[in-house]
Amino acid sequence: MKILFVSPDPKPQRWITLLQAALPDAQWIVWHADLPPQQADYALVWQPPAELFEREPGLKALFNLGAGVDALLRLPALPRTLPIYRLEDAGMSAQMAEYLLHQIAEITRSMPVYRQQQQQQIWKMQPPCRRHEWPIGFLGLGHISQKAARLLQLLEYPVSCWSRSPKQLDGIHSYSDDNELPAFLKNTRILINTLPLTPETAGCLNQSLFTQLPPNSVLINVGRGQHLQEQDLLSALDSGTLQQAVLDVFATEPLPAEHPFWKHPKITLTPHMSAPTLREETVRQITDKLKALAQGLTITGEVDRQRGY
Ligand code: GLV
Predict the structure, then answer these.
(1) CA pair distance 134, 136, nearest whole angstrom
(2) Domain extents for the chain?
(3) Helix, strand, or coil here: 97?
(4) I want to staple 148 with a disulfide (CB 3.0 to 4.6 A). Which of 30, 72, 97, 212 is the partner?
């Protein structure tokens, strides 16, 4: 079995060593632009170039080295019937839960005020967090965000979600369908976007959505930059519809130096680090799936090409 590793990672050998140890019978090959055709069976990919599919028409499946497959599905050269498997959690949900809890506690526990107070040697307790005043709403609740939702609910924040198909999670109010979106937004003060990027969801974080949130709401975007209408966010922050935004993903990454988000006083930004792909966990998940396929078993995590995730 020949398997290609196709990724912009500058140190692919770190992956190959682990992959070879986990599945020594396979021949692991790092793909690069000058590599002649290999007649490979499978490829592990992150943002692969289109030439891959011209040179390797015999691929039986792709394993995406991340959760989001939007960049992959945008490639016109991607064969229509080629099965694609995305990462399912693989250590990402714990990282995401931690990131979201941290960003939320920053806001609800007045941490920026305490940092300022320390500078001025002021000993003063701010009003305690009244959790019922901070209802949290997840836009999309898949593998990556369910742990965060459960954690925040355990910490007694009101938590709800809106998703394409209704979710059954104890104590988490689930909204679905377009007609339930207004009620979901009305009952959300911290809106967390974890939707997959598809033609239907692109640009969904826009003025019409922001104005349906209660005044002084907070937007946290850990989905994709293309979900956000950037100008609408700036207007919502200026008008007070939103009191703050936490952004981990951007339409252009790295965020260009002259971008107004960098220095905006109401924006906290991080460089797409909320839930990075973890090597050991990813290698274990993908090689387990390859072993299952070799035994003729079916595996989970296949992307529905029609839905786009
Ligand atoms: C990260 O953004 C991912 O899709 O895994």
Answers:
(1) 6
(2) 2-90+277-294, 92-269
(3) helix
(4) 97
pTM of full prediction above 0.85:
yes
The CA 195 to ligand 1 mean position distance, Å, reads 11
Q: What is the Cα 208 distance to its own chain's centre?
A: 23
Question: Which CATH code is given to the segment(s) 2-90+277-294?
Answer: 3.40.50.720
pLDDT at 50: 93
What is the band of 39 on the pLDDT scale with cuts at 50, 70, 90?
very high
> Which residue is listed with tokens 């792909």?
277
- CATH tag, 92-269: 3.40.50.720
Token pair belonging to 17 = 């060593």
For 268, half-sphere exposure in the C-beta direction (CA atoms, 13 angstrom radius) is 19
Q: pLDDT, tens digit, for every residue of 79-116?
A: 999 999 999 999 999 999 999 999 999 999 999 999 99
pLDDT in tens, 188-245: 999 999 999 999 999 999 999 999 999 999 999 999 999 999 999 999 999 999 999 9
Closest CA to ligand 1's atom 4: 68
Q: Name residues whose C-beta falls within 8 Å of residue 98's C-beta, 6 or more positions apart in sequence.
A: none
Report in angstroms the alpha-carbon separations of 271 from 18, 165, 233, 246, 255. 26, 30, 18, 11, 8
Check residue 35 and report its DSSP letter: P
Confidence at residue 100, expressed as pLDDT on a 0 to 100 scale: 98
Q: Greatest CA separation found in the chain?
A: 68
Active site residue 109: no
Phi, psi of 87 (to 5 degrees): -70, 140
Predicted pLDDT at 231: 98
Residues with CB under 6 A from ligand 1: 66-68, 277
Question: Are domains 2-90+277-294 and 92-269 of this chain identical in fold?
Answer: yes
Phi, then psi, of 182 in degrees rounded to 5:
-60, -40
- Using the atom order of ligand 1, give the atom closest to the CA of residue 87: 5
pLDDT in tens, 266-288: 999 999 999 999 999 999 999 99
